[in-house]
């Protein structure tokens, strides 16, 4: 299995997975169809399927155009809100593309219908791959917008966190540098955070993507996978994993707002979302 990493705009990724024997290709989170089709033509592969992680615009905005350009294309995902969806997937379902197996893992938190995709190939020494969308990023995760911190904890710790440590993690966004700067704030004495941050700064200087990481690495420096570790508990002042996660998410949002002040409307939305402002309902 070959994975092509295709950076889009400033910080998004789409991916093309190629079955090298049958030359079938599967795209993950399509943003720019024409660019994707240029690559499939150059690679001489046949694109049959789109796997969508969740319904957000930046992960689905190319679906309709691609479906128009490629009649018969299957657009799969777990959420009815996904544009041009042709097949709704459920948790635990397995798909097959030649020698490539895909296990669909529902990972609610960021959105209720967020699906992550775990891939491996028959008779292939390569490690498995995880396409984690916004459920898990390098050194971070997407903010839980539609579900509770408890659900997000289940997704991160019980579903994704238990995959084989050698699994390669391909996430939806290039937020590695700011994620690691936040991780350093959470765990200033964690050498793995420091080492990954130095590495990510070098990649940023050279304009090279930081994906994929591995799950084993993530367990060493990603605070959102380390909610039972003492330094992370101490940073949040909480002990129960879901509460640690809740505080981490809120602090991560606050950190982002301080890092790069956003447009007033977006800032207000985030502030409400994350309880950075008090609302009448909270009183
Ligand atoms: Zn999203």
Describe what this molecule looks like in 3D.
Its cofactor is Zn(2+). Belongs to the metallo-beta-lactamase superfamily. Glyoxalase II family. It catalyses: (R)-S-lactoylglutathione + H2O = (R)-lactate + glutathione + H(+); an S-(2-hydroxyacyl)glutathione + H2O = a 2-hydroxy carboxylate + glutathione + H(+). The protein has 283 residues and is α/β, with parallel strands linked by helices. The protein has one domain (2-277): Ribonuclease Z/Hydroxyacylglutathione hydrolase-like (Metallo-beta-lactamase, Chain A, 4-Layer Sandwich). 36% of the residues lie in helices and 22% in strands. The strands form 2 sheets. A 6-stranded mixed beta sheet has the order 1-2-3-4-5-6, covered by helices on one side. A hairpin with a 3-residue loop joins β1 and β2. The protein is globular. It starts with a strand and ends in a 10-residue tail after the last helix. The relative contact order is 0.11. Mean pLDDT is 92; it is low at 275-283. The structure holds zinc ion. The site of zinc ion has 5 residues, from loops.
Report the top-level CATH class. Answer: Alpha Beta
The share of residues in helices is 25-40%
In CATH, what is the homologous superfamily?
Ribonuclease Z/Hydroxyacylglutathione hydrolase-like
Strand arrangement, largest sheet? 1-2-3-4-5-6
Main features:
283 residues, alpha/beta, Metallo-beta-lactamase, Chain A, six-stranded mixed sheet, 10 helices, binds zinc ion, EC 3.1.2.6, hydrolase, Hydroxyacylglutathione hydrolase, mitochondrial, zinc
């Amino acid at each position: 299995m070959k994975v092509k990493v295709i950076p889009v705009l400033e910080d998004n990724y789409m991916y093309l997975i190629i079955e090298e024997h049958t030359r079938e290709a599967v795209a993950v989170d399509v943003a720019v169809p024409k660019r994707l089709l240029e690559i499939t033509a150059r690679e001489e592969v046949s694109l049959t399927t789109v796997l969508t992680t969740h319904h957000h615009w930046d992960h689905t905005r190319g679906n309709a155009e691609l479906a128009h350009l490629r009649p018969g294309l299957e657009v799969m995902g777990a959420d009815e809100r996904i544009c041009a969806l042709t097949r709704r997937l459920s948790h635990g379902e397995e798909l097959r593309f030649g020698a490539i197996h895909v296990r669909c893992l529902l990972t609610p938190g960021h959105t209720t219908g967020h699906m992550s995709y775990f891939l491996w190939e028959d008779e292939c020494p390569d490690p498995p791959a995880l396409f984690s969308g916004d459920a898990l990023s390098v050194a971070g995760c997407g903010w839980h917008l539609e579900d509770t911190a408890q659900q997000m904890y289940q997704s991160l710790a019980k579903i994704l966190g238990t995959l084989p440590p050698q699994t390669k993690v391909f996430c939806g966004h290039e937020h590695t540098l700011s994620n690691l700067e936040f991780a350093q704030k959470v765990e200033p004495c964690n050498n793995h955070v420091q080492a990954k941050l130095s590495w990510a700064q070098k990649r940023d200087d050279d304009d090279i993507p930081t994906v994929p990481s591995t799950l084993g690495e993530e367990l060493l420096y990603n605070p959102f996978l380390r909610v039972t570790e003492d330094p992370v508990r101490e940073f949040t002042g909480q002990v129960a994993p879901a509460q640690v996660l809740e505080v981490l998410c809120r602090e991560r949002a606050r950190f982002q707002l301080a890092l790069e002040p956003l447009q007033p409307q977006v800032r207000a939305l985030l502030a409400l979302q994350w309880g950075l402002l008090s609302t009448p309902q909270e009183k």
